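Fresh eyes needed here. I'd like your take on this protein's tokenised backbone:
***
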Amino acid sequence: MGRKWNNIKEKKASKDANTSRIYAKFGVEIYVAAKKGEPDPESNRALKVVLERAKTYNVPKAIIDRALDKAKGSADDNYQELRYEGFGPNGSMVIVDTLTNNVNRTAPAVRAAFNKQGGSMGVSGSVAYMFDATAVFGVTGKTADEVMDIMLEADVDVRDILEEEDAVIVYAEPDQFHNVQEAFKKAGVDEFTVAELTMLAQNYITLPGDAQAQFEKLIDALEDLEDVQQVFHNVELED
């Protein structure tokens, strides 16, 4: 389980280093979530998840408010959620989640990123079956036993609770995201080092030096694409 948390940390650190890019992506994600229902997180669970994630990335309030105001207005951009699957160097597996208002732009761009870095696009389902959709929360200032007590008190089912380096990590089913969040908040915990709905590989692989470098270029190329929101993979990242 430790390598899963390591990958999440590395992924978050990478995004933290590209704040303007990640802020723009969150702006789109918040807008789309708000348009699905009411632009109020208390009545729109999808929006509440996105806002909690945005909080852990320190997305400025101005960007959040701008996206919510746009959703409240007459703007009606037609965004679609699309998932692409593919393979990187040495058979590594990659999932690419996108939000796009131009499918004809997105698919060729994702395919080109794979091809340029020695990878290839796969068909739907060729990779995703090797990943598990997972809600992940990280908290500090608590022990694993204390977090377990919090979850038991709230009668929340979780997959695992582990102490990993400087945080306690909770892994749960995706539909338990809100329950885990509310259990923590009732216990006075409302700051998270991570609050994600993610795809975790069932098995992780390591790559030799050259393949690792090429793989990292592939991930960077994918994450640089305008329409890409999240990239998941099964490669154990180096610290």
